[in-house]
Amino acid sequence: MDAPVLLTGSEGRVGRAILDRLAAEYDWRLLDREPPAEERPGEFVIADITDYDEVREAMEGVGAVIHLAGDPRPEAPWDSVLRNNIDGTHTVMEAAVDAGVEKFAFASSNHAVGAYETEARTPEIYRPDDEFLLDGTELPRPGNRYGVSKATGETLGRFFHDEHDLSVVCVRVGNLTEGHPPEDYERGQAMWLSHRDCAHLFECCLEAEYDYEIVYGISDNDRKYYSIERAREALGYDPQDNSAEHDD
Amino acid sequence: MDAPVLLTGSEGRVGRAILDRLAAEYDWRLLDREPPAEERPGEFVIADITDYDEVREAMEGVGAVIHLAGDPRPEAPWDSVLRNNIDGTHTVMEAAVDAGVEKFAFASSNHAVGAYETEARTPEIYRPDDEFLLDGTELPRPGNRYGVSKATGETLGRFFHDEHDLSVVCVRVGNLTEGHPPEDYERGQAMWLSHRDCAHLFECCLEAEYDYEIVYGISDNDRKYYSIERAREALGYDPQDNSAEHDD
């Protein structure tokens, strides 16, 4: 990807994980509602993703988008996810299509399928010998309104792909923590995504050729109930970390 | 169902098909934004479904909801489906849960999966000998923003079922026409839903016991690419009409 890459929500946790490792690899255009707290690579645009004109201007000349912006709180109230996550994602995707963007990576979330973790399945589902596995072809099953908003973003991506031929990949991001996996928290270990694997996965989203994909964004953990096969096949994802093997 | 049934969007086409045949069968509470043009059974509430307080008041004592209200236009702009269909459905479902409603039938649409009708598949997909079949377990694939909004309503239903144990059935309504199926229109014949079968299907939604279901709402047409097996199994749906057998 030689053209500029627009990264929305650059000041969030996923954005920092990506930029920490890929700052020099792309011609970045970063977008967030507030100015950055520290120095960032490339150009910085202060904009609200629900403002079409601002987003459309930031989209000019862009080859690919990594769309992370939105309310990241699992417990966020409906009004906020309706505006920031659902309407905001529609705005960013529409502006991308209007600007002729080729590839669009959307940060979806494990919360889009959180309610598969029923009482009957947990905690066994988090353990290596359990066979329950989601692979991205299942219907969404959100455990909160934030998850509903992420599932809707995936459906919007499907629509903009089918209607406008935008390449769209939805990454159901797991539990991103820096340095080491969550301790004493089986669920977090099962869906751990290391910073290294996170940056690599989004780099794959910028480099691979795809139509429309839903993939799980976790490291190659022994504990897992998300399949990473589709990320490997469609994107060439090759994770290096495993929550079971991590030394502090 | 002995308790009152709240039917939102009673003045729309689906609402009239239901009330024409089931007026005397239930204790109806009808809700729409404008007063009815002709006499209606039961009680009539004038309210906007995006107003929680109005909807919550209409929900008092209700045993089941048939939620049809929303912008019904396949070409409706995003702002309208965001407000009326996505936010409106969230409001009605939340009010239903808060009022202790047991069953909730949501009028989804064939447009939630309209983009499965690709150029490569059509028009063969509309013909009796074609084997392509959607059964409700597939991911949404909307052909327009209206379809995105209906897919989101389905996901909201999943959430309210998982979180609050509301019984939810999403009916992907086909092509509802009165009297006879669409003529010289293969797609319309493939997804025809007669008025008689429509009323029967929503009656099943009020009478059957279910957790969360997505079913297709079409008659038993020879031409079809929607399976009605799940509607038969989960709801006891037993359609009487078939677009191929209809005499004018």
Describe the fold and architecture.
The structure is a homodimer of 248-residue chains. The mean pLDDT of chain A is 96. The first copy, chain A, has a single domain (5-235), classed as 3-Layer(aba) Sandwich (Rossmann fold), CATH 3.40.50. Chain A is globular, with a radius of gyration of 17 Å. Chain A is an alpha/beta fold. The termini of chain A are far apart. The first copy, chain A, has helices at 13-22, 52-58, 78-98, 145-164, 186-190, 195-207, 229-235; strands at residues 5-8, 28-32, 43-46, 64-67, 103-109, 167-173, 175-177, 192-194, 212-217. The A-B interface holds A 78, 82, 86-87, 90, 94, 115, 137, 139-145, 147-148, 151-152, 155-156, 158-159, 162-163, 214 and B 78, 82, 86-87, 90, 94, 115, 137, 139-145, 147-148, 151-152, 155-156, 158-159, 162-163, 214.
Shape of chain A: globular
What class would the helix/strand composition of chain A place it in?
alpha/beta
Q: Order of SSEs of chain A, N→C?
A: EHEEHEHEHEEHEHEH
CATH topology of chain A: Rossmann fold
Going by CATH, the architecture of chain A would be 3-Layer(aba) Sandwich
Q: How many domains comprise the coordinates of chain A?
A: 1
* Name of the CATH homologous superfamily of chain A: NAD(P)-binding Rossmann-like Domain
Question: How confident overall, as mean pLDDT of chain A?
Answer: 96
**Low-pLDDT ranges of chain A:** none
**Percent of residues in β-strands of chain A:** 15-25%
Distance between the termini of chain A: 35 Å
Number of helical segments of chain A? Answer: 7
Strand order of the largest sheet of chain A: 3-2-1-4-5-6-9
Catalytic activity (chains A, B): D-glucose 6-phosphate + NAD(+) = 6-phospho-D-glucono-1,5-lactone + NADH + H(+)
InterPro entries (chains A, B): Epimerase_deHydtase (IPR001509), Glc6PDH_archaea (IPR032884), NAD(P)-bd_dom_sf (IPR036291)
Pfam families (chains A, B): Epimerase
Keywords (chains A, B): Carbohydrate metabolism, Glucose metabolism, NAD, Oxidoreductase
